[in-house]
Amino acid sequence: MMGREVGRWLSLVLVVVSLAGAAPYADPDGAYALDLPAGWSADRQVIPDMGVLTRFGAAGDTTNPFAVFVVTAERDSTEADLAPAAERLLGLVVGALGNDGEVLTQTSGAARFAGQAAVRGDATHRPRGEARTFAVKAFVVTHGRWAYVVMTNAPQGDAAAAARLDAVAATVALASKTPASAGAFTQGNLTAAARRLSGGSQPKLTDVLAPGDPPLTVASVVHFAGLLAYLFDVQLTETEYEMTCGQFIEYYNKGDAQGKQILATSATSILTNLQQGTAEEKAKNRAEVEAVFRDRLQNGAKAGIPWAQALWSAIERRHQTVATTAAKPTTQQTDQGYDTDLSEADLDAACEMLYFMWVAAGRDAKYCTPEALQTVRALLAKGFPTFPQQLQVILANAQKVYSQLRGVYLQATPQAKAQYGKEFAHALDVLGLKDPNRQPSAWDDVDPSNLAGELVQTTCWNLSQRATGGAWPSSPRGSGPWG
């Protein structure tokens, strides 16, 4: 009975989010693909002897918030072609901004985009007839015979608008007809997570995320996170929580009365009902609900519904093995369900755990860009076979360790948090992730050979063992960081 009720609920949820979700766009020449926010369209223009410029935005938006310019070469590009291509293309961008108004500042430097070496240009400008100043961010990257400029343009100082455009840029897939997954490591998610982690108090379950009848509250998202944890042992990280929270708010605001009711209350109701009955009844209900969730989310992902794709990816990444350690977990670790497989999700959690420690240590979050995190992630994956065995075990179970670590920290007193911050700072220094405000080193200088067992054995692991549970409640009565 419960499985059928959940199935109807999930089917309704998928209808709600499919009507409000993003739409994929694929360049007709196959140069790239990306996800467009609801209400956006593309204006593609072939510029003779230059390339193809495609502007993206909502109807009536004349600020050109997002654009992609593609130039086709006569041969495949090499690493040496990036610098001259960037000089030429960024020059075109600045020239176009100058023709349309006044360029106030401009800088450029090495960066990464879509997992590849890139050159990033930043400029501030004031369009003709416009009182506001805008900030342009342009990435130049080459792939095969194509050279790209991916540009965002947001009002200067509008962090929310910039974060939304960063999220669009994160879906750009080069030489593909299918958009990339933006994933959780977007600048907007990282900024929001840092703001919450460094705040003096945690949100309450009753805090309103979006007004309505009934309102969407923190409990709506937290209990959904708890439901994923209960059914699939998926402990959402801070950035995954931010991504889920943002999607809930977007779909709630665009939903009708029934859609709002579903998103605001259903996860709490299902999670509560799963805790009722005998142990045998609980096991039976859990198996039924898990099967329904798996079926609906998998089919929704195949149908191209972004919300279902994101959740199904979060579940699947827990089972996509990157490496396996020969180390044996201790008896205590085995009792806690530790395994020996490093999954894609473990890598994500390990990388975000470092970000969490960085912020908790009082360091400036601006140094932890999405590009920097992806670089560190790649180093962790590459260096895994050479790490001390106990470190391998912890990384292979980073989801559990990180969840417990956050649970301890977020529920600690201010005095205890200050002490934890000192412990985190020491561990980061051992890693080579030193505070650039105090040391001539930062995230881009990480040396994987410096990874030491001390990082996890005396800091992450020992601290996580003080937890009585993870970061997410297993039931509405559970004690989590948000309530």
Task: Describe what you observe in this structure.
The chain is of the alpha+beta class and 483 residues long. It has 3 domains: 146 residues, no CATH class; 146 residues, Mog1/PsbP, alpha/beta/alpha sandwich (Protein Transport Mog1p, Chain A); 145 residues, no CATH class. A 7-stranded antiparallel sheet has the order 3-4-5-9-8-7-6, sandwiched between helices. Strands 1-2-10 form a 3-stranded antiparallel sheet, with no helix packed on it. The chain has a two-stranded antiparallel ribbon with strand order 11-12. Strand 6 and strand 7 form a beta hairpin. The two termini are 31 Å apart. The C terminus is likely disordered.
